[in-house]
């Protein structure tokens, strides 16, 4: 017989309750039983109660496992004897520790002696010899190590493995007394090592009473109290000690289970989540069924069959009366027919259909019946508008051309939600299973319900209109000829920006002023430069006198305005008339007709130098500030100048024949941008940054103020008939005003892409033009009718391109020829161009 293998048991603790601590290692958690973690906390009285209950349970389990009454009594007597003698694992361990000898593993668990074990081993060997071909019997003894050692069961290696499987719960569900060879003491100790069910947080707590009985009350209400609630006996539950945030952080850094701990706010304690609870939370976050054992794809159970029964419920032959008509039913029907023929049975009288309620608006509904809104005095139901059908963009797998780019995504996210063309971005999903739920579904359904319930709906008559019918009926530009359309001539010679140009009343000569400090006289038809005046300062404006009887022009250069008579352009008679007009003021003595304001004005009429007189300069009007603009009156004796000075002295009116200057305004509102005389009335147009004020010089009163609604006015011009005004602005707008209609613009046009520098009417043709910094000149047809009931006709005709843009400046000035439908323009590139 093979020798019995023994193990050296380490020194056990004096407490018997140390055994279950090792049982947690020998019996895995797969058995579903939690081993008590700290049984040393229970007192001796509780241990005696547990032992008494355990002995009673052993008697019942012995009876259940097939023991008769005698064996049961013997089994109980042995248990009582063991209890009376006080022999247990503690005494056995004490004796073994004193002897200091090697013992068998079964002695650790309370086995009787080595002799009994040897006898049992002999009986086991005899049984194994008698039963050939059978497997080895179950292990007779079982033992366990108290310090985490491996369990030794049986007497050989195979039995040790089998016993380990039995104790681990892998080979069988539960060990019985037969597995221990009816060794009551060993089986008793084995049963004591089985873990108890811990009725704690890990178990089912659905039927337990809560520790804190405050109910559904916010815990914040107890923030100022030392307790957090009351238990079931009405006693206060004191608030547990809390630590500051730093201590919490350090504790969390040392706690490996910090990420699987939840806070119970009601009981003010941290609860460690089990694996099952963490698995439930993860499944809920992943959108899965919380129960891992639930099969959501289980086959359907047909409690009621869907197959139609093809056989009858009974196999009996059908009765004859099922084929023969019933004579009793025939007699009954004939009786009813005769009663109807004799008039004894009549139809019931029609019920009174008088309405209980009356429609107060019935007449209005009938009157609207012709329009289809009502039928028969009853209003038709207005069906809810149908939603648009989904497009390719709403597909879960749209084509590539419908998917937005990264730039489009950024623009869509940056845009305001109310101004987005669609409230979603097309996305591409690999399959329909991966498409998530639409997060705006409830919101869109709610908004549609509000539209259907709250938004009033009514039936309106609509007419089918073509988009071309809504466009204004404009004439063909080819029917509005002549107008300038081709560049015919370029005047080159200036080295700076050409700020201003002017044509003499005869239309033969052209003046130009530039930043290079020169004024050039050009022969308009040939482009030949006839004469050059060097004024040594920037020339802001040049203007011919509109009086055809004289040959004089004014040039604003620096802080003075000079009056020049070109000697080569006029004959002797016209030269004498011009010199008499310009020099007549030098022979006058002051004080006669003066009003006393001349001495206070910053203006002086001076005689030019001899060199300037030889060049044709007759008079020099000196000012304290830079002269920005010069405008002649239509009669040719008065001219208005604009300086950079602020206040009323910025605008001055000069009388050339008397060398007299006056200030029409003592105070002005805003910075003046432009001044111009009205062509037919004694009015002066003063343009500020935002408004155009029209003053009556005879009555010395304000006539009206034009409000174009632009940010900065750049130029203004008046129609030759005097009833319409156009103005351009630096914010790219052109405004047309009808002075007899309103102070608001009749029409605003915005075709230029940059600031408008100049606007100009033609004196003989229904044309006007605008010059802009975008390098273009736009020509319009502007017909003003004599019939006041007919609005002006404005038609865009041509866009002229030719000037180069220099330093963000394009065309600075434009002017129509006084006789021909020609247009002249000057730009920042230093050239002058003729358009015919």
UniProtKB/TrEMBL annotation:
<dbReference type="GO" id="GO:0000463">
    <property type="term" value="P:maturation of LSU-rRNA from tricistronic rRNA transcript (SSU-rRNA, 5.8S rRNA, LSU-rRNA)"/>
</dbReference>
<keyword id="KW-0698">rRNA processing</keyword>
<feature type="domain" description="BOP1 N-terminal">
    <location>
        <begin position="222"/>
        <end position="484"/>
    </location>
</feature>
<feature type="compositionally biased region" description="Acidic residues">
    <location>
        <begin position="115"/>
        <end position="135"/>
    </location>
</feature>
<keyword id="KW-0853">WD repeat</keyword>
<dbReference type="InterPro" id="IPR015943">
    <property type="entry name" value="WD40/YVTN_repeat-like_dom_sf"/>
</dbReference>
<keyword id="KW-0690">Ribosome biogenesis</keyword>
<keyword id="KW-0677">Repeat</keyword>
<dbReference type="InterPro" id="IPR036322">
    <property type="entry name" value="WD40_repeat_dom_sf"/>
</dbReference>
<dbReference type="GO" id="GO:0000466">
    <property type="term" value="P:maturation of 5.8S rRNA from tricistronic rRNA transcript (SSU-rRNA, 5.8S rRNA, LSU-rRNA)"/>
</dbReference>
<feature type="repeat" description="WD">
    <location>
        <begin position="749"/>
        <end position="780"/>
    </location>
</feature>
<dbReference type="GO" id="GO:0043021">
    <property type="term" value="F:ribonucleoprotein complex binding"/>
</dbReference>
<keyword id="KW-0539">Nucleus</keyword>
<feature type="region of interest" description="Disordered">
    <location>
        <begin position="1"/>
        <end position="167"/>
    </location>
</feature>
<dbReference type="GO" id="GO:0030687">
    <property type="term" value="C:preribosome, large subunit precursor"/>
</dbReference>
<dbReference type="InterPro" id="IPR019775">
    <property type="entry name" value="WD40_repeat_CS"/>
</dbReference>
<dbReference type="GO" id="GO:0005654">
    <property type="term" value="C:nucleoplasm"/>
</dbReference>
<feature type="region of interest" description="Disordered">
    <location>
        <begin position="368"/>
        <end position="403"/>
    </location>
</feature>
<dbReference type="InterPro" id="IPR001680">
    <property type="entry name" value="WD40_rpt"/>
</dbReference>
<feature type="compositionally biased region" description="Acidic residues">
    <location>
        <begin position="37"/>
        <end position="54"/>
    </location>
</feature>
<protein>
    <recommendedName>
        <fullName>Ribosome biogenesis protein ERB1</fullName>
    </recommendedName>
</protein>
<comment type="function">
    <text>Component of the NOP7 complex, which is required for maturation of the 25S and 5.8S ribosomal RNAs and formation of the 60S ribosome.</text>
</comment>
<feature type="repeat" description="WD">
    <location>
        <begin position="816"/>
        <end position="836"/>
    </location>
</feature>
<feature type="compositionally biased region" description="Polar residues">
    <location>
        <begin position="142"/>
        <end position="152"/>
    </location>
</feature>
<dbReference type="InterPro" id="IPR012953">
    <property type="entry name" value="BOP1_N_dom"/>
</dbReference>
<feature type="repeat" description="WD">
    <location>
        <begin position="491"/>
        <end position="532"/>
    </location>
</feature>
<dbReference type="InterPro" id="IPR028598">
    <property type="entry name" value="BOP1/Erb1"/>
</dbReference>
<dbReference type="Pfam" id="PF00400">
    <property type="entry name" value="WD40"/>
</dbReference>
<feature type="compositionally biased region" description="Acidic residues">
    <location>
        <begin position="67"/>
        <end position="100"/>
    </location>
</feature>
<dbReference type="GO" id="GO:0070545">
    <property type="term" value="C:PeBoW complex"/>
</dbReference>
<dbReference type="Pfam" id="PF08145">
    <property type="entry name" value="BOP1NT"/>
</dbReference>
<comment type="similarity">
    <text>Belongs to the WD repeat BOP1/ERB1 family.</text>
</comment>
<comment type="subunit">
    <text>Component of the NOP7 complex, composed of ERB1, NOP7 and YTM1. Within the NOP7 complex ERB1 appears to interact directly with NOP7 and YTM1. The NOP7 complex also associates with the 66S pre-ribosome.</text>
</comment>
